[in-house]
Amino acid sequence: MPVDVPFPGAGGPAHYLAIDVGTERLAAGIVDGLGEVVVRDRVATPPRDVWPALHRLVRRVVAARPADADPVTACGVSCEGPIDRDAGTVSPMHLAVWQRFDLRERVAELTGLPTVVDTSAHGRVLAERWIGAAQGVDDVMVVLVSNAVEAGVVSGGRLLRGRLGNAGAIGHLLVEPEGLTCVCGAQGCLTPYVSVATLEEETNRPLRRAPASIVERTGVMLGRAIASAAAIFDVRLVLLAGFVPSVFGAPLLDAARREVDQRSRLAHLRVGADRAESAVVVDLVALGSEAPLVGAAAVAREVARAAVAGPGAPEPAGRTYDRTR
């Protein structure tokens, strides 16, 4: 089975140092060219001293790499947006202590590796195309729903990044005019209706104990946003990722599908002889708990592949993900 090529100038098969910065936890690991996580570690995200905690975590992971393992050729970092990909800075909306934080420069200095920073959702959609549920799919969107609510969109086989790298900010799509106030300051955005923090605040209970009415409403609001995004980007597959879909499961998925079916009425978004069914497939991602690290590795992998083969090059074979395990 073929493996990925490394960054230009590096020898041996590709291995990636993967770092994922979340508002609840920091994760780091080493991922091989087939998407297998061979070393992993994580810690809770501290309220203030985030960089020192991440610094220690990365050093532990690097030290834990087996002596006989292939060398790591690049580092991919995923983080909640907004980001400035060219500058390598991040300003996570739910991590106030990091505003215009020079994450790429800090990580590159720490590791000595070529380092790429991208949003968490961009990493997730690249990971699903690599070894997940979107293998071979050129038009797909992954919607990440945790505290952050953002999407990664691949159109025509290419990831849409936007001017600064923040394309796919679906959490700020209007779903309820004059509705709840969002962290961004606007009213009626998707985020306050579906994020972990806002749902737990509204219900005053853990997400796993949310009433059926909240699960249904969350699915409806997601469906509204997905229907609009599907019309804009002309995608055929939408995958839901993150803590909220993993907890709410099938009832959330069913509600979202019904809403998408009701709202996706354009002819090119329907199938069947009488155009009775929505052509937009809504499902859950295939990758589980290791998805954040695989996504971070996929961020570096995409840059490596583009440097060697050019943007939009066909995907090399990765491992096939077993959805039953």
Structure description:
- This protein is α/β, with parallel strands linked by helices and 325 residues long.
- The protein folds into two domains: 15-123 and 288-309, Nucleotidyltransferase, domain 5 (2-Layer Sandwich), CATH 3.30.420.40; 136-284, ATPase, nucleotide binding domain (Nucleotidyltransferase, domain 5), CATH 3.30.420.
- Helices cover 34% and strands 20% of the residues.
- The protein has eight helices and 14 strands.
- A five-stranded mixed beta sheet has the order 3-2-1-4-7, sandwiched between helices. A five-stranded mixed beta sheet has the order 10-9-8-11-14, with helices on both faces. A two-stranded antiparallel sheet has the order 5-6.
- A hairpin with a 4-residue loop joins β5 (83-84) and β6 (89-90).
- α3 (120-131) packs across α8 and α6 (212-233) crosses α7.
- The longest helix has 22 residues, at 212-233.
- The radius of gyration is 19 Å and the shape is globular.
- The protein starts with 14 loop residues before the first strand and ends in a 16-residue tail after the last helix.
- Residues 8-12 and 317-325 have low confidence and may be disordered.
- Share of helix among residues? 25-40%
The CATH homology group name of the largest domain: ATPase, nucleotide binding domain
Order of the strands making up the biggest sheet: 3-2-1-4-7
Order of helices and strands: EEEHEEEHEHEEEHHHEHEEEH
